[in-house]
Every structure is written in C-alpha cells, then in structure tokens.
Amino acid sequence: VATGYVYHELYGWHDTGTQAGFFPADPRRGLQPFHHFEYSESKRRAHELVVVSGLIDRLTRLAPRPATDEEILAVHTPAQLERLVGLNDTGGDAGDGGTKFGVGGVDIARLAAGGAITAVQAVLDSAVDTAYALVRPPGHHAVAEQGMGFCVLANIAIAIKAARETHGLERVAVVDFDVHHGNGTQAAFYADPTVLKISLHQDRFFPGNSGFSTERGEGAGFGYTLNLPLPPGTGNGGYQEAFKRVVIPALDRFHPDLIIIAAGYDSSALDPLGRMMITPKGYRALTSMLVEAAGRHCGGRIVGVHEGGYNESYTPFCLLAVLEELAGVEEPFPSPFGLDNLGQQELQPHQEKVIKEAEKLLKDIH
Ligand code: 6DK
Ligand code: ZN
Q1: Which of 184, 208, 230, 274 is the most exposed place for a label (fewest CB within 10 A)?
Q2: Please, which residues bridge with residue 176 across strands?
Q3: Rounded to the nearest whole angstrom, what is the distance from the C-alpha of residue 363 to the centroid of ligand 1?
Q4: Is the distance from the beta carbon of residue 95 to the nearest atom of ligand 1 less than 6 Å?
Q5: Would the CB of 43 count as within 6 Å of ligand 1?
Q6: Comparing C-alpha atoms, which of 96, 357, 74, 68 is closest to residue 229?
Q7: Which ligand is nearest to the CA of 96?
C-alpha cells in the first residue's frame, strides 16, 4: 500500500501562547503561566517517532500548501476570514478566547487546512492509496463564523468541499474518534446527506452543549449525523463494540466514496484532556476495521487527519498504530506502554446502553 504523509515544521511553530480558556494564567489568582494545552510537543514528537521508527521510509511524503481564500470561504463566513486575516500580523484569538495563535498563525492554519486538502487529493488522484495529514492547529470544532476549541479553520470540512470541486467527490464518511465532539464537521454538513458524520466522544465534555445522540441532522441531512456520547472510562472493548455494531454497519449502509478519520488521540488511556482508555492496540484495531470498510466500499480510499492528543509520550505511539494500519505494515513497532489489560477495558453495561441507542438510528442511513 502506498501511503501519503503530510507534515510540516511550521505546524510546530503555531504558537498558542500560555494557558487560555478554562485556565487563563493569572498570578493574582494563583494561576501560574503554563503552556497552552494545545502545545506543539505531542505532534512534533509524533512526527519524530514516525521518522525514528523507520515508518517514514515506507511513506510517500506529501508537501502541504496553504488553503486559498476560496477554499476557506466554502466553509467559513467572509467576516470570519476577514477577521482572521486582519489578525495574522499581530496574532490573536480565532473566536472563543481559548483558540490563540501567534504572528503568522493564520498562515499556519491555512497550511493545516491545505495539508488536509493535499492528503485527500493525493488519494483521489490515486497518487497514493491511503494518506495521513499530521496537521496543527486541529480543525473539528471550528464553525463557519468562528474558531473554537483550539481549532482555527475547519480542516476536514474544507478538504471535503475542495474535493467536491476538483474531483466531483460525492459521498464522504467522517469517523471522529477524538475524545471531544466533532461539532464543526457536523455543523458544516448538518443538512447534507452526502456527508455521513459519525462522532464518538466523551459524553457532554466539549463542547458541553453538543454531541447528543438526538442531534441527527436536518432536512435532507436527517439521519446522516450519528453521535455516540460514551461514558468516561470507555476503553478498547467499548470502542471496538461501538465500531462493530454502529460505525461499520453505518458505513456499510452509506457506501462512501471516501472515508476520513478525524484522528484524535485524547481518547487514549493516558491523555490529560480526556477520560477514556484506548491504547495503541485499540487504535490499531479501530483503524483496521475502517481500512477494511474502505476496501469494501471505495477502493481502499481512506485518509486520516490529525485532531487532538496531548500526552507528549503516549500520543506518538497511538498515532504510529493508526499510521501503520493505513500503510498496511505487518510487523508493527511495539508500544512500550502496557495498558492493554487495565480493568474494565472490556465493554461495560453503561457503555453498551449508548451503543444500543445508536443502533436504532442506523435505519435512517440510506
Ligand atoms: N474550552 C480537540 O482536542 C480540542 O478536540 C479540545 C478542546 C477542549 C477545550 C477546553 C477549553 C474553553 C475555551 C475557551 C473558553 C471557554 C472554554 F480540536 C482538538 F484539538 F482536536 O479550554
Ligand atoms: Zn479533542
């Protein structure tokens, strides 16, 4: 399998500054300055493990280019693009007070969206079979009129809209296993039955007011938004069961022409921003099911786009597992963390309840 890989050093230079949002640094209140949660280390180190493990030698390196105004405007409002462009020389916040960027940060956000575009188009051009875009800043929370939750531009939504223009791409399924709800991707295509949006996330986490299973899309798009708000503590067993009983059957009903993974590793067992328990072995199993589904439906066309993941030591191994699966590597690089046998890794009854509810929603996917 030829697998494309997008990374750029500038992704590490996106400067989110000191802690903002929930915990703004404020010495007067005892809040010590600390780097923002969405800091470059986990992603930069993930890239370095891709190199040091030797996996890089089996990948086709793809150079990202910045997303154009036109590509951005297919998802975001003119007012938001104008506001961002106006802040590029000074740095600023993309919208919610927690989504900071430094001088030139909007150029880097364009390169992240462009990285997603590059990965998707390389697969649609058959230049590669599968691809992964290790981009930063992330994208799945950004909505038309504002950035939020560390996301400046809606990378995946922008890449889908662009591929429609350039390749006439028709049906796309997005599977989001980041621990937070993929609200931005959902919003961009809420009324659109040609984009199946599946998000598995920690129940009422971030954004706290979205990601409910009752959000199912609107108009013609009804049925094509599928949310699984899982209880904290869900691990490999719960996620694999959710994939077997909901995600894969949904893909089988939908018949996508392309599968995109919103690949966030904050659903891992060691993430500081999440309370789930997926291990590299679990990410490997989930990805393998998606790769298989892509083989059945769309000539194996599947693209991963990086979202969250904040443990600087663990995220690299989680990413490596996903990337190895996309590349069809038969002898995986071993993860040194032995968390596969944690108690309650297997499916628990309160997790199964969510899966059972979601199974009832499958019938509205055609
Ligand atoms: N909220 C992500 O991992 C981002 O999904 C997670 C974002 C959690 C944000 C928590 C937070 C605020 C911010 C500002 C004001 C109030 C609350 F997008 C990904 F990176 F993938 O700080
Ligand atoms: Zn996240």
Answers
A1: 208
A2: 199, 262
A3: 32
A4: no
A5: no
A6: 357
A7: 1
User: Would the CB of 96 count as within 6 Å of ligand 1?
Assistant: yes
The complex's ipTM? 0.92
pLDDT for 218: 98
pLDDT of residue 262: 99
* Closest ligand 1 atom to Cα of 206: 8
Q: Output the CA 196–ligand 1 centroid distance in Å.
A: 23
Say how many Å lie between the CA of residue 250 and the centre of ligand 2.
23
DSSP-derived 3-state class of residue 283 = helix
Q: Does ligand 1 have an atom closer than 6 angstroms to the CB of 98?
A: yes
Among this protein's residues, is 141 annotated catalytic?
A: yes
Residues 6+ apart with CB under 8 A from 359: 245, 246, 249
Task: List pLDDT tens digits, range 22-37.
Answer: 778 999 988 899 999 9
Residues of the chain with pLDDT > 70, as a percent, come to 100
Q: Three-class SS of residue 323?
A: helix
Our CA dihedral for 344, 350, 351, 353, rounded to 10 degrees, sits at: 150
Q: How far apart are CA 154 and CA 163, in angstroms?
A: 14
**Residue 208 above 80 pLDDT?**
yes
CB 180 less than 6 A from any atom of ligand 1: yes
CA angle 111-43-20, nearest 5°?
85
Ligand 1 close to Cβ of residue 206 (< 6 A):
yes
Task: Give the Cα separation of 340 and 280 in Å (integer).
Answer: 8
Asked which of 25-29, 133-137, 353-357 is least confident by mean pLDDT, the reply is 25-29
- Give me the pLDDT at residue 22, please: 74
Closest CA to 56 of 334, 280, 328, 324: 324
Of 140, 141, 181, 306, which one is the catalytic site residue? 141
In Å, how far are 20, 43, 85, 109, 115 from 10, measured between CA atoms?
21, 12, 18, 10, 12
pLDDT reported for residue 10 = 98
Domains of the chain listed by start with CATH number: 3-364 (3.40.800.20)
Indicate which atom in ligand 1 lies nearest the CA of residue 262: 21
Nearest CA to ligand 1 atom 19: 308
Q: In this structure, which residue's CA is closest to atom 8 in ligand 1?
A: 149
